[in-house]
Amino acid sequence: MVQAIRGMRDVLPDEGRRWRAVESELESVLSSYAYEEVHLPLLEFTELFSRGVGEATDIVEKEMYTFADRDGDSITLRPEGTAGCVRVLQQHGLLYNQTQRVFYRGHMFRYERPQKGRYRQFYQLGAEAFGMAGPDVDAELLALARACWQKLAIDGNVRLELNTIGSAADRGRYREALVAYLSGYVNDLDEDSRRRLTTNPLRILDSKVERTREILAEAPVLTDHVGRDGRAHFDALLEMLDALGMAYVLNPRLVRGLDYYNYTVFEWVTDDLGAQGTICAGGRYDALVEQLGGRPTPGAGFALGLERVLLLFEQQNLPTAAAVDVYLCVLSDDLYTEALSLADRLRLELPELRIRVHAGGGKLKNQLRKADQCGARWAVLVGGEERARGLLALKALATGEQTAVSIEEAVARISNTA
Ligand code: ATP
Ligand code: MG
User: Fold this and answer.
1) Helix axes 13-32, 135-151, angle to 10 degrees
2) Quick one: which of 7, 151, 243, 415 is 20 to 30 A from 48 by CA?
3) Could you identify the atom of ligand 1 that is nearest to the CA of residue 276?
């Protein structure tokens, strides 16, 4: 048998059911905040990401699935959604002179080392807000994320880490200070960090190498270089978060790996998933639209990793409902189409329930065993002696109690216990 490609994750039915439950909760929160869905292509020109995400980022340097298509164009499987989202709105004239609040979801692709919570194909749900420069929309996005965790009952297991990284000019001044400091330790730095000293020194702050981390402990702090406007934006945001009763941890070392952020950056972090503890990350990116060729347009947003959110959800929540609610047993082969019709009638009356008709014949005993295996609470036996009286046999699988009832009564009984 051909096996799956490394890092591509298969979702089996049990997880698929929980996945759908989680996704539909998230969808309902986004909808209640009046964010509207956009669909982004899986493939974009490579240039979109090299310009949008940044040449000197991990993603562009070493994580993208890039190939030449049959015309020789350089194409990339999307590694993230924000650049594509900007491209879509810009191309369709939806950014100029207006505000937008949108969300997208779907698979992203990054060539990285697969482990628990880290895959090469993974699923993000992202929310983005355009055309609003103030901290009010930063607060809205954070409230929206918090509402998602509350809805999934994982809000007790995550914390918000928050920082401001100032404007591009602030970061320019900071970069100089950082490079000046690190230049005193060139020989002690790891190889990647030494290279980044000239390409993208801020990314050294993300280094996981122990000796480099020791050196960084004494390094100048970005937050100290944030100018007056950036400071005011951040202070106003913190005031709003306090008023909203939103807990946060200020983390002056939080800088995010993507180039396009300014001012506010944040991560929602959990201690319950080991090394892959960030379930959601984002911030403000006022320069991105212009960087991609549009008119200057402020933007802010976040993306959450659905696999990680699901892992956390599964740790906190009892298993969700079984695969099937009502199982129709077919007592003789010539009654199969009658059973299908009956099932369709029940589906109309009980649209929330999962109703399965047995296929493949066999003894009633074996059919009932299948009903049990898939977690059904009710069996309907099609073809018993009740049929002559226009009734059907309804069996409560937990107690084994079986009664002859009309369709209406069966519907009433099943929905009372649903
Ligand atoms: P990390 O530091 O874990 O690599 P990142 O900073 O690269 O994350 P973002 O690009 O900000 O992540 O993506 C937002 C979210 O998407 C992350 O917080 C995480 O939940 C999820 N995510 C990112 N990369 C992966 C991956 N390879 N597999 C699963 N989820 C991922
Ligand atoms: Mg990453």
Assistant:
1) 140
2) 7
3) 3
